[in-house]
UniProtKB/TrEMBL annotation:
<dbReference type="InterPro" id="IPR002059">
    <property type="entry name" value="CSP_DNA-bd"/>
</dbReference>
<feature type="domain" description="CSD">
    <location>
        <begin position="1"/>
        <end position="72"/>
    </location>
</feature>
<dbReference type="Pfam" id="PF00313">
    <property type="entry name" value="CSD"/>
</dbReference>
<dbReference type="InterPro" id="IPR012340">
    <property type="entry name" value="NA-bd_OB-fold"/>
</dbReference>
<protein>
    <submittedName>
        <fullName>Cold shock domain-containing protein</fullName>
    </submittedName>
</protein>
Amino acid sequence: MVARWNDGEGWGEITSDDFADPIWVHFSAIERSDRTASPGGYRSLHANNSVEFLAERADQDGYRWRATSVRRLEGHDQP
């Protein structure tokens, strides 16, 4: 699930029961869809979006994990 998203900077944080730490995610890791892609290619998420993702171990801005691929799960968002 997306814990927070910064549209101005194009990155955010996702959490999962499978990881003890939050996962850093950049907009470029988000799969394109008609709803989330602008003509310039910017994609975004929103807090409480449900997602599935792949992550790799990384030292990224203080995070121990970085998402390499993120897909929003339509219809599964949390309130």
